[in-house]
Structure formats: structure tokens, C-alpha cells
Design goal:
Lysin; about 350 residues; mainly alpha; 3 strands; hydrolase; three-stranded mixed sheet
Length: about 350
């Protein structure tokens, strides 16, 4: 079964996830086809704007519901984290105290599976699309149909234009990874290494429990990085910051490409951007608290900081000069450079 019961996570997630918008079967089929067509139509404009080329035989986007999104991400989390758990246990030693009996292990796996399922259920109603890195499997671009319908309806924007807008952003992520094959393995490796580094030993776990009771209010403050920010050492925070810088780059670049492509292909792109930005700011209080607890509010800043970085670099050295960023892990931006695009320009271009 392993350390997390991922099948139980899927079951829990499916039970807890909010119901999607009410549509007829015919409407659902039509929406899926429209999203699939919008994803295909986004390929050439995105490649042209980003000036990145990918294989012509790249698979089509997968248009999924919330339950399928949960299942795919549970499988990816399993492939990402299970080897990490093994490494953590090996690092701590393999004595009897480190190896629980079968009953305790099964119960623990169910508990952590339920926790993972609850998190996936929350995220499944928020995510519009995702390029699944699929460690150990086949990467794929996923678009979550009920969420695209739901957000377009909530915002009161043109559904076809919103559909195209989302596909431009997510297609950029596919291009980032397929045009630069080394990037996927680099991110997977970095994430696994960081997870091993962040795992506390029994002594540190006791310290963290006490720290949590003393400083929990900090987690819910505006701008918080969530529990991770509370539990990490300065050295760990530096590693997290550099990995976050790469995520900021990816999200910011997708936002820039999406908005640059938009005016020529999406008539209401300015209206959509304004309404979407307003929605980000106007999340309800319970939703905001959970986002802060999980550090997801910090993710929203990735879009803004990353987009400012991309536009700053492109203004200085153009799109081709910016694309030097994809040459190797050494040319990816450091945390301090996300806030100072010219620092990256000086380091990479001299």
C-alpha cells in the first residue's frame, strides 16, 4: 500500500469535490468539443508568439471533469512522492522503531490518503487547466471543463473567448516543457530533493508542533507562504525561493504569452483579464484562509511577479534574448532575479 493510500485519496476526493455546473448531456458534449478545438487552435499562435517550437506529433489536450483531474493528480503525486518517502525512511535509519507494524501502517496510509484526497477535492474546483508532468508516465495537457464553464459564467464573460484565453495560457505551459525536454526532469528532481530535505526527524517534529501552536496566526496573514513558511529553516527557504522563482517564470511567461496573443485572436481579452483579476482579489473569507494555510495565496503572486520579470527581460533583450532562459538549469532565474530582471540579463547576457 505504501505510505499514502492513493486509491483512498481518489475515493475521498471524488466524494468531497463540489458538484460542477448543471448542464445537459448535450451541452457537456458540445463544451468538451469546443474546449478541445480551442486548445488545438491555440498551438500555432502560442508557438509563434513564444518563438518556441515543439514536435508536430504532440498529443491533443485532454478535456476532463473534476473527478478525472483528481485521479490523474493522485497518480502523479504517487509517482512523485513515493520514492521520496523511501528516501526519507532510509535517511532516518531502518531500525524497528522506524518500521511500524502492518496495521499501524495501513491506518496511517488511510489517514494521509484522506488528507491528500481532501486537498485534491479543494483544488479540483479551482484549476482551469494544467500541464501534468506525470513523473514516470506520459505528460499531458489537461483542461477542466466544468471549471472553465463555471468561471466564465461567474465572470459574465464571453464563453468562447474565455475558453480560448484559458487554452492560450495552458498551451504555453505545454510548449515550455515540450520545446525544452530537460525542464520536466529538472523540476521533478528539484521537487523530490526539496521534499526529502524538508521532512523533519522526530526531534524536529516535536519542535514544529510547539512552534505551530505559538505562531499559527502568522499563517493566515496576508502574503503568508503558508505552513511551509512557518516550518522551514533559512537554508530551506532559500531553496524553496529558487524553485518558486522557476514556477514564477513558468506562470508569468504563460500569462504574458496569453495576453500578447489575445488581442489578435480574442476580441474581449481586455475585459476577461480585468474581470479575472478582480475575481482573484475578491475570494471569500473561508477560501482566502485555506489558500493562506496552503500557501496558495503566494502562488497568485507568481503570476504577477513572473509576468513583470518576463516583460522586463523582453523589453531589454527581446523575445529571442529572453529565450536564452530555456538553455539549461543554469540559465533559469534565481529568486532575487525575479524581482530584478536586469540582474538576470547581466548574468546571462553579460
Amino acid at each position: 500500500m505504501g505510505y499514502v493510500d492513493w486509491e483512498f485519496a481518489k475515493t475521498t476526493g471524488r466524494k468531497l469535490v463540489a458538484a460542477g455546473p448543471s448542464v445537459t448531456r448535450e451541452e457537456a458534449i458540445a463544451e468538451v468539443e469546443a474546449i478541445r478545438a480551442a486548445a488545438a487552435a491555440a498551438r500555432e499562435p502560442v508557438a509563434e508568439t513564444a518563438r518556441l517550437r515543439t514536435p508536430d506529433d504532440a498529443p491533443d489536450a485532454l478535456v476532463v471533469d473534476r473527478a478525472t483531474w483528481i485521479a490523474v493528480n493522485a497518480d502523479s503525486m504517487s509517482a512523485m512522492l513515493d520514492p521520496t518517502f523511501e528516501e526519507i525512511i532510509a535517511k532516518r535509519g531502518d531500525g524497528a522503531a522506524a518500521t511500524p507494524n502492518a496495521t499501524v501502517a495501513a491506518v496511517g496510509a488511510k489517514v494521509t490518503g484522506a488528507e491528500a484526497g481532501a486537498l485534491l477535492a479543494f483544488m479540483a474546483s479551482k484549476v482551469l487547466g494544467q500541464y501534468d508532468l506525470a513523473p514516470g508516465g506520459t505528460p499531458a495537457l489537461m483542461l477542466v471543463a466544468p471549471n472553465i464553464i463555471d468561471v466564465a459564467t461567474t465572470l459574465g464573460v464571453d464563453r468562447a473567448d474565455f475558453r480560448a484565453w484559458v487554452c492560450m495560457h495552458e498551451e504555453t505551459h505545454r510548449v515550455q516543457f515540450t520545446a525544452n525536454p530537460w525542464l520536466r526532469e529538472h523540476l521533478i528532481t528539484q521537487a523530490r530533493e526539496l521534499a526529502v530535505d524538508l521532512a523533519p526527524d522526530s526531534e524536529r517534529l516535536g519542535e514544529l508542533t510547539e512552534l505551530l501552536t505559538q505562531r499559527l496566526p502568522e499563517v493566515f496573514r496576508e502574503g503568508s507562504t503558508g505552513l511551509a513558511g512557518l516550518f522551514t529553516t533559512p537554508e530551506q527557504r532559500e531553496k524553496m525561493a529558487d524553485l518558486t522563482a522557476v514556477m514564477s517564470l513558468l506562470e508569468g511567461h504563460a500569462d504574458v504569452v496569453m495576453d500578447d496573443v489575445g488581442p489578435a485572436h480574442i476580441p474581449t481579452v481586455a475585459h476577461i483579464r480585468a474581470k479575472f483579476s478582480e475575481k482573484r482579489k475578491g475570494a471569500g473569507a473561508p477560501d482566502r484562509m485555506l489558500r493562506r494555510l496552503l500557501g496558495l495565496e503566494a502562488k497568485l503572486r507568481q503570476y504577477r511577479d513572473g509576468a513583470v520579470f518576463v516583460r522586463g527581460v523582453q523589453a531589454s533583450v527581446g523575445v529571442e534574448g529572453f529565450n536564452a532562459i530555456w538553455a539549461s538549469p543554469q540559465t533559469l532565474p534565481l529568486a532575487r532575479e525575479i524581482q530584478d530582471p536586469q540582474a538576470w540579463v547581466r548574468r546571462v547576457h553579460g
